[in-house]
Amino acid sequence: MKTMREILRADSSDDFDMQMIGKFLSFASRGDRVGLNQMLIQGISPDVQDYDNRTALHLAASEGHTPIVELLVCYKANVNLKDRWKRTPLTDARLYGHRDICRILEVNGGNDFTNDQLMTVRHEEDSNDVKFDMSELNTEHSSTIRQGSFGESERVKWRGTWVVKTVVKRQICNPVKMILSAKDNTLLRELRHPNILQFLGSIVQQEEMVLITEYLPKGNLENILRQKARLDLPTAFRYALDIARGMNYLHEHKPCPIVHNHLGTRNLLQDEGGHLKIGEYWVQMLYEQINPDQNGKRSNPRNIENLIDDPKKDVRTFGFIFYQMLEGRHFMTSTNFDTINEEPVDFKPKFHLSRCTNRIHQLIEHCTSNNPSEIPSFGAVIEILEEESSSLGRAVCPC
């Protein structure tokens, strides 16, 4: 029987291999030293890489997980492997200001080959490298999947790795023209967080926008809730924290916050480690309003001009999703959950089944409130969830 090391080194295109690599890198990104060490003991190479040639050391250095960096160095991880942007782990540690990690890497021979120049978003004329060549997509064993609400998706192979190809048609929401500029494309490819789906690139093909994203084989939250109706408290808290952390990363993005505006159970996807990742956070960037009004301003479909840049709509949607996880879809009464955030509605959450604390009741009430001043930020949501989850007597998710 092959060892894990032999399996992972034999054929990097194997679907099982990529799941194991994804799990390993997820442990590094989250700071899970126990999980990472167990896989290293079983024989996985510390130098396995993701779609962008990033290693566990790159991810740990970016996130500031010093114990993970020390562990990987003990296992003789290559401290000078370069990712797609020619950055080493030391480059990332310096970029995010983790001085203790910089010292560890330097002592162990780490180099920064970028001459201390920080990676910035490139100008559109310099961004040709993010465009996909459709001929690289192998559809020989492709299959149709459902990974989100916008567009038709199928699983295909790109450079030997399973990815998701999504074709988004022009009529996503009439009347609009779908645009994903080179600047947006570059920005999306450079986003990195354990709780957001990895965006790999896009290409315009005639009247359609083709998006390439990470493939997660375990389905979405909608499927999970369809099978289980409602979740136990620890699982609901863990999923809620996954969503809140991913959304907080997007909302706190500098210099421009990224507002999702289309958050839903269909684009909350489960990774190999059983955590949720947020997908379709790029959809709002696809809208370019093309009907100017009499003053020359572009009109917005469905009167969403006041919502596009308002992160509180995302928090409100999160509140409904959290409530659904705790109480089940049938306790949404007569309200249509899929359209509940299109227009403000009177919603009074009632907790019949879940045995949550009053603090969680109040959190959901505030998140789903029609009064914007009552709706908290995702940072405040995370703080409450972490404190409440610790009172359950078990760690919901490593911070």
Automatic annotation (TrEMBL):
Keywords: ANK repeat, ATP-binding, Kinase, Nucleotide-binding, Transferase. GO terms for molecular function: ATP binding; protein serine/threonine kinase activity. Residues 139-392 form the Protein kinase domain. The keyword Transmembrane does not apply. The keyword Nucleotide-binding applies. Transmembrane segments: none annotated. ANK repeats lie at residues 52-84. InterPro entries: Ankyrin_rpt, Ankyrin_rpt-contain_sf, Kinase-like_dom_sf, Prot_kinase_dom, Ser-Thr/Tyr_kinase_cat_dom, Ser/Thr_Kinases-Pseudokinases. This is Protein kinase domain-containing protein. The lineage of its organism: Eukaryota, Viridiplantae, Streptophyta, Embryophyta, Tracheophyta.
